[in-house]
Amino acid sequence: MRPIAWTVIYLAALVCSAIAPKDVFIWFLEVLPALVAAGVLAATRRSFPLTPLVYTLILIHSLILMQGGHYTYAEEPLFNGLKEMFGWSRNNYDKLGHFAQGFIPAMVAREILLRKAVVRGRGWLHFLVVCVCLAISALYELIEWWVAVLSSTGADAFLATQGYAWDTQSDMGFALLGAILALVLLAKIHDRQLMELRR
User: Fold this and answer.
1) Distance, CA of 76 to CA of 31 (rounded, Å)
2) Dihedral sign from CA coordinates of 177, 196, 114, 33
3) How many helices (H) and strands (E) does the chain have?
4) Residue 160 pLDDT more than 60?
5) How far apart are CA 111 and CA 192, in angstroms?
6) What is the DSSP letter of 74?
7) 95 near 137, Cβ under 8 Å?
8) Which residue, 177, 141, 180, is CA-closest to 158?
């Protein structure tokens, strides 16, 4: 994906998500990782350009965050419809978000570890990628907890537990599943793009 197209899609989605969100504070909290990611990508575009695959995945993750920020994860409309259709007890949009929280960072971590030659063996590479993703997931759960403790408003909407006692553990489980699937499904495509990047 060309940088112009990436930027246009990102900015259009960001603006749309910022128009009359359900809760401005929750919107900011949910969109903040996408804003940080865009800043990091802009700062490193020339010194450490990424593969097209990783740029595309980061954009997809940003779109998921913006959608969740606009509606809150517990009230995202598409997943409300799926909730009724499948008889779910809760809106599971946050599970998509946590799956992406493993799937996308797995490819980012894989790219950095390979290009910086941090590890030699593929077994250690996969192990470290999964560890990085679980660390990110755990950190995010801690941030959710801190926000809930420090904020008298918006804690329930940001946590999106919806009364599910095992929400934190299942969030981390979905991130783990996402990381493993990313490595299984995208490693060969990613390797080809890394080879092209080196030319």
Assistant:
1) 15
2) negative
3) 8, 0
4) no
5) 12
6) G
7) no
8) 141
Residue range 16-41, pLDDT digits in tens: 999 999 989 889 989 999 999 999 99
Both structure tokens of 46: 């020339």
Percent of the chain with pLDDT over 70: 93
Question: Tell me, what's the pLDDT at 18?
Answer: 97
Q: How far is CA 58 from the centre of its chain?
A: 7
How far apart, in whole angstroms, are the C-alpha atoms of residue 63 and residue 60? 5
- Rounded CA-CA distance 120/113 in Å is 9
Can you give the pLDDT at residue 162? 57
The confidence score (pLDDT) of residue 144 equals: 80
Rounded Cα gap, residues 142 and 9, in angstroms? 30
- 26 and 72 in contact (C-beta within 8 Å)? yes
Q: How far is CA 145 from CA 42, 73, 102, 158, in A?
A: 30, 16, 19, 9
Which residues, in sequence order, are CB contacts of 48 under 8 Å at separation 6+?
A: 115
- Residue 44 in tokens: 């490193």
Q: In which residue are the tokens 């809106």 written? A: 91
Both tokens of 34, joined, read 């996408």
